[in-house]
Amino acid sequence: MDAAIQSFVHGFDNFLISALAAGALLILSCVVYVILTPMKELELLRNGNASAGLGLAGVIIGLTIPISSALATSVSLFDLLVWGVVALLIQLFSFRVVDLILKDLPKRIENDEAGAAILLIAVKISSALIVGAALWVPAPMAS
Fold first, then answer.
1. Minimal CA–CA distance to 131: which of 98, 78, 90?
2. How many domains does the chain have?
3. Per residue in 9-38, pLDDT tens?
4. What is the dihedral of CA 51, 56, 60, 61, to 10 degrees?
5. CA dihedral of residues 10, 135, 65, 81 (deg, nearest 10)
6. pLDDT at 143 > cutoff 90
7. pTM for this predicted structure
8. Is residue 118 in some structural domain?
9. Rounded to 5°, angle at Cα 132 from 131 and 138
10. Distance CA 21, CA 15 (A)
11. What's the rounded Cα separation, in Å, for the pair 131 and 91?
């Protein structure tokens, strides 16, 4: 039991710094995403637009998956930040892909078209799972 307590005392500061950095990165990424997308998700959500809420939920999950994978595999805070930025860029790219497929995605979300929001969620979570899993791939072995 003494070893477990010592391990906790020794590692708690690293845990706290890493968890807070990942949480701050998630919040910052969500804010940047909301600012850069053409529709006003929070305003739409406040006005009862369920599709905006679905789309925003997809963003949060889509950012959390790769950030959590980066948190588990990163060797430094800088490494975590780099992969967090990559996750944000991929989520923005996912938005553009769905927008190209559906034509005028922002208008569809503003019109509360659930089908468009559901497709957006699927693309965001799928891309996040791929990125998150790719972060777990071990480095190539030296020959």
1. 90
2. 1
3. 878 888 899 999 999 999 999 999 899 888
4. 20
5. 60
6. no
7. 0.84
8. yes
9. 95
10. 10
11. 11
Report yes or no on 57 lying in a domain. yes
Residue 143 domain flag: no
Structural domain that includes position 68: 2-134
Tell me the C-alpha distance between 116 and 1, whole Å.
53
Residue 93 and residue 36 in contact, taking contact as beta carbons nearer than 8 Å: no
The encoded tokens of residue 122 equal: 């699927």
The 10s digit of each residue's pLDDT in 110-124 is 999 999 999 999 999
| 122 assigned to some structural domain | yes
pLDDT interval class at 138 (50, 70, 90): low
Angle, alpha carbons 126-97-87 (nearest 5°)? 50
**Residue that has been written with the tokens 């922002």 in this structure:** 106
